[in-house]
Each structure stands twice: as C-alpha cells, then as structure tokens.
C-alpha cells in the first residue's frame, strides 16, 4: 500500500506520541468528525453525516477503553463519554444538529483540559 508523505507523517506521529498526546489526537479526530457530521446534516447529506458520527463514536469508545479506573476522575469521564455517545446517536437518528453541536462543545472543553495537563506534565518532566 502506497502512502502519501502526509499519511506517513500521521502514522509516525501516532507511533511516537506520548499517552497524553495520543488522547489529544483522539479528541482532535472526534471534534473533526462531529463537525463533518454536522456539515453533512446541514447539507442533507445523511450518509456523510452518519459515517462521520460513527467515526466520532468509535473514537469515544476508544477513549472509554483507555480509562484507568484506579483514578476517581475515570468514572466522571465515563459518564461524560456515555452522554456524548447518546447525544451523537440522537443527532444521527433524529438529524439534530443541536445535539451534535453540544458534543463538539464538550469535546473542545475536554481537549483544552487535556492540553493543559499535557503542558503541565512537560514542565514537570523538564524540572526533573
């Protein structure tokens, strides 16, 4: 399979990323796919909307699978992820942009939190 330089770059980025960077990359993908799903709904392209919402749901399932329940925050994140999954399903089934837009807002907020955590851990590693 021939890959473009961009595809090779993406693959190498994922292979060399830290766990925190991988989580941020998952959020980036989920945000992108939900936004593309919204665009599909707005243009009455329900196949594109469905495909993109399903991709975002897969990413949310991956985020759920990556939770470490040794930390109390994992249970809270699980609840949030399950809620977002429900909202995406509602958006997909009932063609409701508002539900999907709410998911984007939650994903962006969570991504910012993980990004701050990532920056903080980098500062800690530099001090060590």
Structural notes for this entry:
By secondary structure, the chain is an all-alpha fold. The protein has a single domain, classed as Four Helix Bundle (Hemerythrin (Met), subunit A) (Up-down Bundle), CATH 1.20.120.340. Helix content is 85%, strand content 0%. It has 5 helices and no strands. α2 runs antiparallel to α5 and α3 (46-65) runs antiparallel to α4. Mean pLDDT is 90; it is low at 123-128.
Reported for the largest beta sheet, the result is: none
Roughly what percent helix?
over 70%
Point out poorly predicted stretches: 123-128
- The run of helices and strands is HHHHH
Indicate the CATH class: Mainly Alpha
How many domains in all? 1
| The named CATH superfamily | Flagellar protein FliS
**Mean pLDDT value:** 90
Beta-strand percentage?
A: under 5%
Whole-number radius of gyration? Answer: 16 Å
Give the structure's gist in a few sentences.
The protein is built from 5 helices and no strands. It is mainly alpha-helical.
Keywords:
85% helix; Four Helix Bundle (Hemerythrin (Met), subunit A); mainly alpha; globular; disordered C terminus; 128 residues
Layout: helices, strands, pairs:
Elements (H helix, E strand, L loop, with lengths): L4 H12 L2 H24 L3 H20 L7 H22 L2 H31 L1
Helix pairs in contact: 2-3, 2-5, 3-4, 4-5
């Amino acid at each position: 399979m021939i890959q473009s330089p961009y595809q090779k770059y993406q693959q190498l980025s994922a292979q060399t990323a830290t766990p925190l960077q991988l989580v941020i990359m998952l959020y980036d993908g989920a945000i992108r796919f939900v936004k593309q799903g919204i665009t599909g709904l707005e243009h009455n392209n329900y196949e594109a909307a469905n495909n993109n919402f399903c991709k975002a749901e897969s990413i949310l399932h991956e985020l759920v699978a990556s939770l470490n329940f040794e930390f109390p925050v994992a249970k809270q994140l699980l609840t949030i992820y399950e809620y977002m999954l429900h909202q995406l399903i509602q958006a997909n089934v009932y063609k409701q942009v508002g539900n999907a837009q709410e998911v984007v807002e939650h994903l962006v907020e969570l991504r910012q939190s993980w990004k701050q955590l990532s920056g903080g851990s980098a500062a800690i590693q530099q001090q060590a």
